[in-house]
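Our preliminary data section would be incomplete without showing what the modeling component actually yields. Below, a chain of 352 amino acids is followed by its predicted structure, encoded as tokens that our downstream tools consume directly.
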Amino acid sequence: MTCDIAKRSALLAALLVSCSIAHIAGADSRFTASWTLPTLHEAEQRFREWLVSQPLDDNARQAAIREFGDHLAQGTDSLTALVRTLATFDERTRTLIAPLEPSPPQFSAGDIAWLDSAESKRFDVMHLRLFYARALNEARQHDEALRWMQDIEPREVICPEVLLFQRAIAHQQLVQADEALAAIDELLRCESALPARYSRLAAMMSADLEPLKADTLDHIGRRMSDVERRLQVGQANSRTTEVEEAIIASLDKLIKEAEDQQQQKQNQQTAQSQPTPSGTPLEDSRIAELKAPGKVDPRKLGDDTQWGSLPPHERERIMQQLGRDFPSHYREVVEEYFRNLARDEEQPSQRP
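Predicted structure:
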């Protein structure tokens, strides 16, 4: 009985551990990486397996294996070690890498057509394409670099970290933030196995690209730098024209947004400066309605003024006041006015 309980407890514990691992794997993308970083021994083993399929005698094969091992032992990165080893027995590889170290690549389309032929998925050719793409990146020819790397999978090469890092660099320099971040994310899924230089640079690139928003001044400035780079490396082509047109469109959009914001601000200021009407204004399309009859009796004008009925002493006071407040020649006019009023009171005149 005790034994059964112990077995069940052990089984339950194993199940819980398994579930925990599965949960962590789903939460952390590093557990779902589609590639692993080969050790030096694994890289040598893959090279040996490929050599078996090549038309080499045993001495040449053993010499190539030793050459590859010596490069790795000296600290040479696995991609460079492999390409230099290939150059010891392959004429096309020697022709390819001779101009690449250290000069920028200068090839005609015919010189490298074999890299893009039916052999392009061969073990050696894939690594030569990646080596060439890295040289293109160093020569600031990032569009071309991406073209040579586009159909290579990380698990197909002995240096997947080089492939993903070079893709991230090319996309970053071309201001393709989403693609660059995708390559960085894939690279950092095996962060614990990466050399420190890769993980640190990838983290710096990610921090640089994550805040970047389309059609902002930062985004436009980076694309302007990309156009400048293209012209410097002699890429005055249709792709460069497309980038220039996209920059102009982004600038137009920014200007339009700024104008709209300024107009909205002015409209708000104008509305705030206008007084608020106290009542409802009369509609322009409606004629005002008259409430009074609109008649005036001319005979009643001035009846309540009492100018003609003022006492003599009051008239004299007013005349003295007028004499002080107005020039003297007005006094005669005022006196004549009062005389006429007096006559009108004694003999009222009939007004028409």
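The mean pLDDT is 80. The CA atoms of residues 17 and 23 lie 10 Å apart. Preliminary results of this kind motivate Aim 1 of the renewal.
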